[in-house]
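Title: Prediction job returns without error message
Component: structure pipeline
Severity: low
Priority: P3
Assignee: unassigned

Description:
Job completed but the reporter wants confirmation the result is attached to the right record. Sequence as submitted:
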Amino acid sequence: MKKFIIAVILLFTLTGYAFAFSSADLQQLLETGSCPGCDLSEADLSGQELIDADLSEANLRKADLQGADLTRANLTNANLHDANLQGAILQHATLAEVKALYSNMVEADLTGAMLRNADLIEADLTGAKMQFATLNNAKLEFAILNDADLTGATLVEANLFQAFVQRAQLIYADLSRATLLFAKLDDAKIASATFKDAQMVGCSGCP
């Protein structure tokens, strides 16, 4: 699969086709498994095995990472604005400071992932696996977390203004000092979850 993609890159490069991403950066990622600071905007990385990849500060805006395996990958401060990560595996990945506004993370596996200070405004995390993920100070305004599993997750001081968290698993989750203004937690399982000093005005389903 990697050889095929590299061949396609070379073909288009020779014919003068204009990429949104850097073909050299994409080739580096596929050959070495890492490319920090690279321009991979709009690149097709669907289904790629990128375990332990270093993509810190990479530009992955509108990239297709559907079904990609990014287990333990470093995506610190990466740009994932409007990227497609549906069904991607991001177990124990580092996504601190990531910019993932409007991204599609439907049914992505973010178990144990680090998302401190992540910008996930209007991101779609429907059905995502986020057990024991760290989302302290994350921006989740208007995000969709319906049916997501946030068991044991940490969302201290996270902003979930008008977020949709219906039917989600929040058992043992820590939402201390979180902003839940006008959020929807209807039918969410919140047994043993912590909401200490959280702002919950207008929140439906909050304790």
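Comment from assignee: result matches the submitted record. The helical segments are 2-14, 23-32.
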